[in-house]
From TrEMBL:
Signal peptide: none annotated. GO terms for molecular function: acyltransferase activity. InterPro entries: LipA_acyltrans (IPR004960). The keyword Transcription regulation does not apply. This is Lipid A biosynthesis lauroyl acyltransferase. It is found in: Cell inner membrane. Keywords: Acyltransferase, Cell inner membrane, Cell membrane, Membrane, Transferase. Its main location: membrane. It holds the Pfam family Lip_A_acyltrans. The lineage of its organism: Bacteria, Pseudomonadati, Pseudomonadota, Betaproteobacteria, Neisseriales. GO terms for cellular component: plasma membrane.
Length: 290
């Protein structure tokens, strides 16, 4: 039944899905917990947080969810047709010319699933995305069905998955990692600052960037207004990684901050980026502020 619903939603024109997202965004805005979380995170980021700003974040968040059926079940050429602007593809071409593996980094910003699918279809080799299975098994089956097709592959968020990703990069292939996902284990993250506030941050991106002959690039799939489609933005990582976990995690967070500030309405501010999965206190004086 869920697969049928997703396939049905995937056939609805994007403009109507986005209009539905605007309407459902009002329902999300009506939830006090979600509204408070978004307002708090906008405040931490130093971004405007008037009621209309919070509402827009709710609406864009709902649109992101409604776009999943398109990413999972529309044909590649149909997805490609939704992207009307591509900025920075020359960085990908340069990496391809140098026969480098592509470490593609994207925050929970804009339409990252659709952008990843678009990039995947333009590459001459497979693209493997790190993947944490949802708790609902039926939804997991849908996500696997939608993502493991064409040149798309998935890797679990565990040691075996990391080994799979490293192997792909060494073979000159591509991977996608979302750097602002809060790791659940003690060894997978460090405490550094995100918009000035302590945030438990994954160390995986820095580790993958140290794989020999790898090119790290950030990308964002910007959602254009009025259901017009999307714009893909690609840029090199800003700053230098050196292999030290805390330093590299801070550099990654600085990059995410820059992208969030650029497209604030489209960031997943409803996600609790500042939760403490370790349950242990942290020392503010030990946090890197590079």
């Amino acid at each position: 039944m869920l697969i049928f619903i997703f396939k049905l939603l995937s056939r609805i024109p994007l403009i109507w899905l986005h209009r539905l997202g605007n309407w459902l965004g009002w329902l999300m805005y009506a939830l006090p917990r979600e509204r408070r979380m978004i307002r708090r995170h906008l405040n931490i980021a130093g971004l405007p947080h008037q009621p209309q700003d919070v509402l827009r974040v709710c609406q864009e968040t709902v649109k992101s969810g409604l776009e999943l059926p398109i990413a999972f079940f529309r044909q590649p050429e149909e997805i490609s047709a939704l992207f009307h602007e591509v900025h920075g593809w020359e960085y990908v071409e340069k990496a391809l010319a140098n026969q480098q593996g592509l470490l593609l980094i994207t925050p929970h910003l804009g339409s990252y699933d659709l952008a990843g699918r678009f990039i995947s279809e333009r590459l001459p080799f497979p693209l493997t995305a790190m993947y944490k299975p949802p708790k609902i098994k039926a939804f997991d089956e849908i996500m696997q069905l939608g993502r493991v097709r064409g040149k798309g592959k998935t890797a679990p968020t565990n040691l075996l998955g990391v080994k799979q990703i490293i192997k792909a990069l060494r073979n000159g292939e591509a991977t996608i990692v979302l750097p602002d996902h809060v790791p659940s284990d003690h060894d997978g993250g460090v405490w550094v600052r995100f918009f000035g506030k302590p945030a438990y941050t994954m160390t995986l991106v820095g580790k993958l960037a140290q794989v020999q002959n790898v090119c790290p690039l950030f990308f964002v799939g910007e959602r254009l207004a009025n259901g017009r489609g999307f714009a893909l933005h690609i840029a090199p990582l800003s700053g230098s990684l050196n292999g030290e976990k805390r330093h590299d995690a801070q550099i990654i967070n600085h990059n995410v901050e820059q992208w969030v500030t650029r497209f604030p309405d489209q960031y997943l501010f409803a996600y609790n980026r500042f939760k403490n999965p370790t349950g242990e206190p942290y020392d503010l004086h030990d946090l890197s502020d590079e």
